[in-house]
Amino acid sequence: MIELEGLPELVDPVLIAAFEGWNDAGEASSGALGHLERAWKATPLVALDPEDYYDFQVTRPIVELTDGQSRSITWPTTRLSVARPPGVERDVVLLRGIEPNMRWRSFCEEIVLLCQELGVELAVILGALLNDSPHTRPVPIVGAATDPGLARQIHLELTRYEGPTGIVGVLQQALGTAGLRAVSLWASVPHYVAQPPNPKATLALLRRAEDLLDIPMPLGDLPEEARAWEHGVDELASQDSEVAEYVRELEERKDAADLPEASGDAIAAEFERYLRRRDHGGEG
């Protein structure tokens, strides 16, 4: 267990979390956390002791040259940092980690304790999964919430998945059991282009988190990177007739399943983002 003394007193903090590994198709969710850490210049808070949760033969430490000669070891772990987004009167705790290899319940208990010590009452956990969604359409975002009213408020399409789960599902339940509100947001990554990075899925997760938290997300170059990614996949698909035909089938299936009101909801959400960014003086 880590020492809790010395943690700062935060203002109405919310938690945004993501984990590398099984929950992170295309590295879309961990990419979102890394993007926020850099854009908001997050200040490190604390790191969990990796000895308790990681099998180093499975999740190996990384050796690096720090000055061209000296070697340093970076151990796989889960780290928390804090940021105050520009123009926002609350703090955001960023949790970026690697799915642990063991002691998941103790791992989640430690994170819950940290959230309680920091005053976090709402957590947003990001994930990404492989799916048969076409890369040419908006990235579907589904999720789960410990508070059904919150899910309705943000028009969250609830997942009906049943089966093996990862640390995202386990942590969300642990947070809810402890009395904290927790929402998981899952981006669907096309299974035929699963290799990272996937800036389009990362962008979709950040926009959905913005809708939920009413905090403008710094998008930076992500919109341009998402368009370039989609264009690159278009070119690759056009070189293989079977892949191109498969993508067309997915598009037809997706378009047939989308209800007319879904487009209206998307337009309304985009307009609300525009107003939010204008009011906060944020980027477009």
UniProtKB/TrEMBL annotation:
**Top-rank taxon, per record:** Bacteria
In terms of Pfam families, this protein maps to: PAC2
- InterPro entries for the chain: Proteasome_assmbl_chaperone_2 (IPR019151), PSMG2_sf (IPR038389), Rv2714-like (IPR008492)
| Gene3D superfamilies assigned | PAC-like subunit
Q: What is this protein called?
A: PAC2 family protein
Organism this protein belongs to: Spongiactinospora rosea
Lineage here is: Bacteria, Bacillati, Actinomycetota, Actinomycetes, Streptosporangiales
